[in-house]
């Protein structure tokens, strides 16, 4: 037994260590996704028997005005969240300077990342309060009255996105700080010898070494934007009049409050398809970029 283990331990050890995570992934993630797709072809209240209706939920989805509002809001979240990686990179470049007191600044910028999303949502709800919030104080300083942004269907989505992007920028900043610690000093020195400074140094020497970090930052940011839920639940509950809903929250509302689990699963399936298409496209782009680099 021991001799067999010694002969095969090079592949047995990593296999046994990875196996629990693989099993958990297949059971919790993949099986749940397949089950959701199956439920989307049924009419089900979550308690009684499921009734097969084929594509009925998807046909109804295409005629649902709220679905298009949620889809538009997801697009707004996605476009806004794409600002998080470059802003995180800018902060990381700033905080990576060897200046006295920079460790304290890093800690301050790191705070949003360790706060729970619910806490961030509550804080920004106070900030947006028209009578007593920080936004109100800023407007009063200029002799104006602060709008009730969380009650205005034209501004509510932007207001929630601003609250949600704050910790996302901190997350990207931490990723880039870790990446900058692994940047080759030899290449930096060679770039300086060749006359690279400022933007040229960043573009031609630093950024190529941060390709993997950028890949992770963009992928996680996009997925986070598409599955946005907690901030909306805390700050607006999808209001006013459903104007701040996204696909994830509409799925939750239809399933939990309206007892339409089949319809909610159809929304979840559409959201899953969008994520899969984006991730597949993005991975292909990265692979092609790596092949050209080689």
Please provide a written account of the structure.
It is a multi-pass membrane protein. InterPro entries: ABC_transporter_permease (IPR051393), MetI-like (IPR000515), MetI-like_sf (IPR035906). Belongs to the binding-protein-dependent transport system permease family. Pfam families: BPD_transp_1 (PF00528). One of its GO terms (cellular component) is plasma membrane. With 294 residues, the protein is mainly α. It has a single domain, classed as MetI-like fold (Orthogonal Bundle). 73% of the residues lie in helices and 1% in strands. The protein has 14 helices and two strands; from the N terminus they run αββααααααααααααα. Strands 1-2 form a two-stranded antiparallel sheet. Helix 3 runs parallel beside helix 8, helix 6 crosses helix 8 and helix 8 runs antiparallel to helix 11. The longest helix has 38 residues. It is globular and about 70 Å long. The model has no long low-confidence stretch (mean pLDDT 86).
* Class from helix and strand fractions: mainly alpha
Q: Structurally, how many domains make up the residues?
A: 1
Poorly predicted sequence stretches spanning 5 or more consecutive residues: none
| Rg value | 24 Å
Number of alpha- plus pi-helical segments: 14
CATH topology: the name is MetI-like fold
Shape: globular
* Mean of all residue-level pLDDT scores: 86
How many strands in all?
A: 2
Can you identify the CATH class? Mainly Alpha
| Gap between N and C termini | 44 Å
With strands numbered from the N-terminus, the spatial order across the biggest sheet is 1-2
> What's the helix-strand series?
HEEHHHHHHHHHHHHH
User: In the CATH classification, which architecture applies?
Assistant: Orthogonal Bundle
Helix content: over 70%
Largest sheet: 2 strands, antiparallel
Binned strand content? under 5%
CATH superfamily: MetI-like
Membrane topology: Multi-pass membrane protein
Keywords: Cell membrane, Membrane, Sugar transport, Transmembrane, Transmembrane helix, Transport
Domain ABC transmembrane type-1: 70-284
Family: Belongs to the binding-protein-dependent transport system permease family.
């Amino acid at each position: 037994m021991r001799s067999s283990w010694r002969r095969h331990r090079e592949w047995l050890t990593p296999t046994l260590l990875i196996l629990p995570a693989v099993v958990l992934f297949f059971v919790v993630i993949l099986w749940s996704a397949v089950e959701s797709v199956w439920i989307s072809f049924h009419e089900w209240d979550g308690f009684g028997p499921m009734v097969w209706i084929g594509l009925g939920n998807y046909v109804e989805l295409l005629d649902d005005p709220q679905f298009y509002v949620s889809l538009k809001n997801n697009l707004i979240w996605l476009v806004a969240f794409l600002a998080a990686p470059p802003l995180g990179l800018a902060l990381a470049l700033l905080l990576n300077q060897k200046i006295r007191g920079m460790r304290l600044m890093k800690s301050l910028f790191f705070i949003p990342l360790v706060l729970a999303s619910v806490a961030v949502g509550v804080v920004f709800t106070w900030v947006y309060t028209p009578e007593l919030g920080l936004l109100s104080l800023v407007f009063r300083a200029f002799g104006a009255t602060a709008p009730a942004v969380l009650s205005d269907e034209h501004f509510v989505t932007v207001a929630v996105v601003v609250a949600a992007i704050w910790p996302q920028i901190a997350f990207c900043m931490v990723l880039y700080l870790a990446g900058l610690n692994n940047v080759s000093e030899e290449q930096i020195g060679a770039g300086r010898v060749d006359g690279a400074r400022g933007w040229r140094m960043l573009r031609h020497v630093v950024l190529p070494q941060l390709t993997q970090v950028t890949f992770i930052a963009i992928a996680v940011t996009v997925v986070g934007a598409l599955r946005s839920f907690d901030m909306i639940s805390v700050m607006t509950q999808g209001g006013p009049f459903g104007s701040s809903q996204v696909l994830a929250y509409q799925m939750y509302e239809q399933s939990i409050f309206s007892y339409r689990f089949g319809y909610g699963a159809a929304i979840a399936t559409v959201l899953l398809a969008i994520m899969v298409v984006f991730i597949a496209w993005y991975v292909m782009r990265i692979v092609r970029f790596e092949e050209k680099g080689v």
